[in-house]
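Recap from last week: sequence in, structure out.
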Amino acid sequence: MTNKTQIRTQRISFVLALSVITYTAIDTYLSAYHDIDVMKIMTPVILGLVATILLCGLLQRSFYKWITKYSINLPFVRQSAIVLESDTEIKADCTTEIQAIEQPSVLDNYDAMLENVKKKEAERHVKIMDAIREYVTIKTAPYLSKEAIATLIANIEYMACDQPDLYKPIRSNIDNPLRSPGLRHLAWNVGERLNVSLVKRAEFIKASFPHELVNATTEYLRLNLRDTVTSQIPIDVPDKGDFRFHLDTDNDDSQ
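Predicted structure tokens:
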């Protein structure tokens, strides 16, 4: 029995007990001071109420059996049935929509969209690498041999793929070598387009040019990749949302 039912039962019991006490008090008062016998007045009333309640219950049961047996559709019954049928149709439509959402075709479409996003990212990466190859070739041609430029581009690709163990050392031209400021700026410019961390940029340039950067630690390089020192290769900050280099407006300030 729930708490609600218990409370209701307690209230009914209280009302009945209070009614009995009230009736007894009234009966005693009228009998003692006015010589009135309440039982003679109330007995017919009580019997009439009991008979009426019993008759109402019997009639209700009889009408229910009669209506059910002959399938009589009353107006309010038909209205209730229509409302119930309408609710059922709405629930059925909702269920159909949910099933349609859960169809494998939607998941297939999601996979296709995800594949399309990956394809666009791959295409963008190819364009970035093409721009880097062009930039590195133009900027380092006065200081590196053709073979050294090819090795440098390969090291950049290894940095983009997070394969630092494949780095190969390079040495710039003896008569026109690259110096630390230019190498630091080169690492920053390239790494900014590839969106790699400063630590990886420092490790890349240190491993690629161990001779030129023999006195520079990786930590020093990380902290000084982007500085304002005049160099052979200046800092090239990409425009917002773009990866291209400013080759047309970039003038070298050779040290």
